[in-house]
Amino acid sequence: MMNFWSQLFDTSDFPSRWNCGDWTAGHGWLHILSDLGVWSAYFAIPCVLLYFSLRRKDLPFRKVFFLFGAFILLCGLTHLMEAAIFWWPAYRFAGVVKLLTAAVSWVTVLALMQVAPRALAMRSPEELEREITARKQTEHELQRLNIDLERRVEERTADLAAANAFLRHERDRFSTTLASIGDAVITTDTEGRVTMLNRVAEWLTGWTNEDAQGRPLADVFDIVNEQSRQPVDNPALRALQEGVIIGLANHTILIAKDGVERFIDDSAAPIQDADGITQGAVLVFRDISEKYQAEAKLRESEARFVQLADAISQLAWMSRPDGYIDWFNSRWYEYTGTTFEQMEGLGWQSVHDPDVLPEVLQRWRGSLKSGQPFDMVFPLRGADGVFRPFLTRMVPYRDEQGNIVRWFGTNTDISEQKQIQQELRDVAARLSEADHRKDEFLATLAHELRNPLAPIRTGLEVMKNAADDPAKMEAVRNTMERQMRQLVTLVDDLLDISRITRGKLELRKSHVDLNDVIQSAVEAARPAIDEARHDLSISLPEPPVRLQADPHRLAQIVSNLLTNAAKYTPPGGRLALTAECGERDLKIAVEDNGIGIPAEKLEEIFEMFGQVDHPMQQSTSGLGIGLTLVKSLIEMHEGTVEVHSAGAGQGSRFVVRLPLSKEAAGSEPPPPTGTPDAVSTSCRVLVVDDNKAAASMLAMAVEMFGHQTQTANDGKVAVSIAAEFLPNIVLMDIGMPIMNGYEAAQHIRRQPWGEGIILVALTGWGQDEDKLRSKAAGFDYHLVKPADPSELRKLLADVAPLADQHHH
Fold this sequence. Notes:
Structural class: alpha+beta
Shape: elongated
Strand content: 15-25%
Distance between the termini: 112 Å
Radius of gyration: 64 Å
Helix content: 40-55%
Number of strands: 24
């Protein structure tokens, strides 16, 4: 099938009709001319039918005519194809044309079958003639009746003209009356349709009288509720339905034709004739926008005032000119826990302090009489029964003539301000006390620094003239050594307090033996105890107790307590150091029979710069920071410290409690970690310090230890000398000009010859961050000035073999 349609116009597989059979020329042209004649006739007939159908659009059964035209045209097309086949053998296309002709033929047959009954039912020409004659007779009768009707209409028109003239006169008089009214007027018929608007109604509604005529009243008179914006029942329509006068509800808005909104009030009444029959309704209304807006502004102002008064934190109230309070805000009721009925008039006096109320009333009446503002602080009782101070102010509100019409008052809770003021006074007192203590501390610090410096200075003078007296030189040296140790202790305590205050001090805990800690502490405090000729008794638990603690700081705690006891006990006194091991903690007590502590000073004894005042003849050294340092270090060990004293001259007892872990208490002491005495090895030591005197003295001390030295006074020179001297050890200051110690150490470490040198930082900077920074710069050790000579000697002895090994 698809092949058939694709070759519809293909003639290659058919011969032309001239070549099919024995066609003579005459025979062939006879068929050709006959088919062309039939085709031309068939083509002309549809054209005539089409023209006729288009000209007579009232022609019955026009579709049948179109079908006939199509049928005849297709029949002509088949004859045309019969003629064309003599030259163009398109037999497939010719077959399709014949099939189409057959289909249209049967469609035409079916259409004729449907039309035939209707055509048979059509009237004959005789019947149509009779109908036309009857119509002409009817038209003649109608003309006669029309003439009679026109006559009667003329008579009625004359009567109506007279009646209309009278009505126009009455209407004009009615319109004039309505126009002269200041209110808007709308009338309606019984169906609620507009019959008339006066000029005021036209202006308010935006509708002209002509445009509104006959329209439903709801279209012209569009009213809604102010709050809900929903349509309002039309009063005129209600008047029609109920037959009574109807007034409009409040808060009604008229929406004009142009969208303008106006507040109105109105009323409507039915229009009735003499028999009481309702003929329509009349609606009278007026614009009250200005009046309503004024009342709205007043209400809004009052509402805003109430909202503001309720929102403020103060208690607020208002009274009449005579002082009769007739309004309170919500904060008043919340605070007092009362109601308006309880407070109205003079009820507010019930929340006042009875002792203060008379003065309040006196000043209150004075303000009412003079008209001057009222300003006073007095207590008010709250709902919880607590009296709190309030700053109360009352001011008058006057009219244009200056007469007082209202009083407005507020009560402001100032209890927090009072508390802050008291706290500020307390802070000021504490600051004043701290400032006083600071001044005392600075004076004491100067005194304590001068105390060891004086014998040191004197000793230097004595050494100049006693070079030949070894015994005197030794005595002077011992004295200077003790005073130097005291100076170092003072500086160390100050640095420790500074580290603790800034949170920079860290404990280095380990398992320590209590006996070792006590021995170290006693050794440190022994010079002060022996100098004052005190008797010290020591009682320690058996077996030895081991703790998880920082051994250096724990020894410092006990040493400070012993030194403190030695200071504040007259010469020849008794000191006792005891330790007891409980189930959970270790108790260490230091007791003396010294000057004691007054009861009022027991709480201050651990505060910074806190010292017990005592007569000048009993003055002792100290900065007042030792016990503060003790308390801080104990708390860092999660322990406590307390002091007991029966009073002045009754001695004192300090008790330290430290937590005792079971693991620490039962553990065995670690094996000794010391190293055998190092074999003395001579090294090359480079001493670097921008202080030439310090560098020279340190070099002399190092040489006395058996080492070879050279000195430099800045980092750059030190690097240059080290490149030639090739030292085993470098003792270097940090803060130096040109090139500091960090930079010099980094430069040395970058040199091939500097990798094995032992670098020791010897500086006044001793914070933990300083030690970390020196390590990062390449230093192996970090010593804080002034370095203890024995400690320095031991360090040189320990590192000398290592330095010599690296050098080789």
